[in-house]
Amino acid sequence: MKKGQLFYLMGGSGVGKDSLLHYLESHLASSARVVVPRRYITRKIHTGGEPHIEITPEAFQQRVAEGGFAMQWQSHGFSYGIGTEIDRWLSDGYQVIVNGSRHYLEAARQDYPNLQPVLVTVSHKTLHERLTMRGRESHQEIEKRLQRAEALDQALMHTDLIRLSNDGPLSEAGEALLRLILSKDNPHLMALEPKTATA
User: Fold this and answer.
1) Any long-range contacts for 142-147 (C-beta under 8 Å, 24+ apart)?
2) Considering Cα of 121, then 123, then 127, then 129, what sign does the dihedral take?
3) Which of helix, strand or coil describes residue 168?
4) pLDDT of residue 197
5) What is the pLDDT of residue 134?
6) Is 53 in contact with 43 (CB distance < 8 Å)?
7) DSSP state, 39?
8) 64, 88, 117, 177: most buried, per Cβ within 10 A?
9) Pairing of the two strands 69-75 and 53-54
10) For all residues of the chain together, what is the average pLDDT?
11) Alpha carbons 38 and 25: distance in angstroms, whole number
């Protein structure tokens, strides 16, 4: 059996990664051999936020010690982890799409050299509007975040990096993500079809 493909989705806060992953899951055929694993995060679950597995810092470190994470990193005071179950899914021929970190990309590539990095982007204007609407940060904090995000995105210059614009309607970027997965030469993806037809 051919191993599955690992897709590494990344992008700054506000670009719509969670919405894209939700779109992907809701438009996959029930027979599709595609998995979007939940991240383990040492952060409380909030309504409307990312659907993740809430874990205490102590339990997170215990899982690290036991080798329970295929990937793990720190960001904004929280710990993030992707479980080792992705290795089993990949070995079984499933396509796995993880919600990754731009900072962790190089480390992820060390363990998964064949992963496909996908960077979700939006324009400076769109991102500023989305972050402002969230109301979590001041104008100065938003500007600093935008500058950091732009610098980090520019530093990602891998030849195999795919940039996915999410400036327009969610369906446009969502369908592009589906087409990306479908384009991989893998017989297990033949059953993967959007539930809605595209023009």
Assistant:
1) 145/12, 145/13
2) negative
3) coil
4) 30
5) 66
6) no
7) P
8) 177
9) unpaired
10) 83
11) 12
> Rounded distance, CA 13 to CA 8, Å?
16
**In a 10 Å sphere around its CB, with 0-12 CB exposed, 13-18 middle and 19+ buried, how is residue 146 labelled?**
middle
Ordered domains of the chain (ranges, CATH): 6-186 (3.40.50.300)
Tell me the C-alpha to C-alpha distance, in Å, between residue 97 and each of 37, 50, 127: 7, 15, 23
Q: Tell me the two tokens of residue 172.
A: 């446009």
Show the tokens assigned to 18: 């969670």
Give the pLDDT of residue 190: 35
* Contact present, 128 and 146 (Cβ < 8 Å): yes
Instruction: State the number of CA atoms in the 13 A half-sphere of 96 facing the CB.
Output: 25
- Averages of pLDDT over runs of 10 residues in the chain (199 residues) are 88 88 90 91 79 95 97 94 97 94 93 94 76 68 68 66 91 93 52 32
The string of DSSP codes covering 98-151 is EE--TTTHHHHHHH-TT-EEEEEE--HHHHHHHHHHHT-S-HHHHHHHHHHHHH
Question: Which tokens go with 164?
Answer: 């996915």
pTM: 0.81
- Alpha carbons 17 and 100: distance in angstroms, whole number: 10
189 DSSP 8-state letter: G
